[in-house]
Amino acid sequence: MTNTAISHREQNQLLAAMPFEDWRYIESHLEWVEMPAHSTLCEAGSSLRHVYFPTTAVVSLVSTMLDGATVEVAAVGNEGMVGVDAFMGSSNANNGTTASGTVMAQNTALVSRGGHGYRMSAQSIAHHAKRSEQVMHHLLNYTRTLFLHMSQTSACNRHHSLDQQLARWLLVHLDRQADDELHITQERIASMLGVRREGVTGGALRLQKAGVIRYGRGQMSVIDRAGLEAHSCECHGVIREAYSRLSNDAVLQAKPAAHAHPAAPSADATLGRSSVTGWPAVQSTT
């Protein structure tokens, strides 16, 4: 691993939460890679060869129907990893693995925002999870939060208006990047929400008229974060608070002596914008 890669370790919260003793074993199995926008990291039903720990990239986990329809079930940024199936066991009772024990990907992973991250073989992460109770503990804590993210997204898609879903989707992705610019087409957003493009066009126009976003030529700029949160349902807050708890718990576990001289978190500590000191409060307007 290069010095550049080592210097970026703390840009991924899950890796930074690992005890240093475990990191010494893990780092030799990590590869610093580019994750180009719109690239596919793995496809549902295919052999899961690698897991990814994004640092600046954002990845959409997508479910695909038999008729080709798609919907994003979660987004992964530098708070976690892509490929949690790799360490979830080797039984093929639920068709999650082949007879030989090869883990199969349950969702397609598409890079929605290009950037960088770490890559590790699926076999290596499974080995480290079995080797270290602490590594498994952090991985399972993250997976539990990811599953909450997925279930809340499912509930949102079923019970809330398209305008609320659009606002929630934008906020979830903004939480995982360093600026307020989204380079994405309405057609792609519609694909991620599992709706018709016309619905996204109407929702985007209403948000633009409300002075919340500015949109044109495949680029969307959020100019009023608080206003966007007001147009969203409660689902964004539920998801964001879950990751905030995960981050805070990880910091406490990584620094057991912090109670003696607690360090105040950075004022702009937010996912993709600062260190791993934790997510901002749900009501933050950064």
List keywords for this structure.
three-stranded antiparallel β-sheet; globular; alpha+beta; four-stranded antiparallel β-sheet; 10 strands; 10 helices; disordered C terminus; 286 residues
What does the largest sheet look like?
4 strands, antiparallel
Structural class by secondary-structure content: alpha+beta
User: Which overall shape is indicated by the principal axes computed on the Cα atoms?
Assistant: globular
Determine the number of helices (DSSP H or I, runs of at least 4 residues): 10
Sequence of secondary-structure elements: HHHEEEEEEEHHHEHHEEHH
Radius of gyration: 19 Å
Structure, described:
Strand 4 and strand 5 form a beta hairpin. The model is unreliable at 90-95 and 256-286 (pLDDT under 50). This protein has helices at 3-7, 13-16, 20-26, 122-131, 133-159, 162-174, 186-193, 197-209, 225-231, 235-254; strands at residues 31-35, 40-42, 50-54, 58-64, 70-76, 108-113, 115-121, 181-183, 213-216, 219-222. With 286 residues, it is α+β, with helices and mostly antiparallel strands. The protein has ten helices and ten strands.
Q: Short description, anyone?
A:
The chain is 40% helix and 18% strand. With 286 residues, it is an alpha+beta fold. Strand 9 and strand 10 (219-222) form a beta hairpin.
